[in-house]
Specification:
The chain is mainly alpha-helical and 177 residues long. 75% of the residues lie in helices and 7% in strands. The chain has one domain. Helix 3 crosses helix 4.
Length: 177
Amino acid sequence: MPLALTVNILSAYHKNRMTVISRIGAVEDLLAGRRTMKNLLKINLASILFALPVFAAIEGIGNALRISRITGWEYGRVERLITVLNIAGFILTGFLIVYITRRVLENRRISLISSFLWFPYFTLFTYGFASLFPLTVHEDKPTPVTGLIFIGILILHFLYLVFVQVFSIFLAAEEQK
């Protein structure tokens, strides 16, 4: 309320003329800016959450040899554990996508932009992890074909994310009818 009292009439200098903006227009513009910033923050936080499952899956696959060496478990056991965790993560990611799209992003079509925005966050997570935990033992380095598997995982994650978000938005539109 103090803003509404202090901003009774705003004047702005535009092309050598005084333009008077009424108090109502200024307050509406300020509120619209707050909503826009809040929505932008929600989309970015959703994108961070969408990047975490694929980051965990790829880092688990890429570091299976290192996990085996550090824990002392045989490689087959680590590989099976990572596979089970990735399958469970894939299923839980679907529920996470639906929950975030419905509750946080409020089933708006603009929320589909988060299906693209997760990739820069994934890249930052991967760079941060590689910086914090560099490969020091040459034997821990994954095979070259692992990179192709990672590219396939990233493409599938993108398609999965888009499909589940569109499906969630479509179901919400049908429920409102």
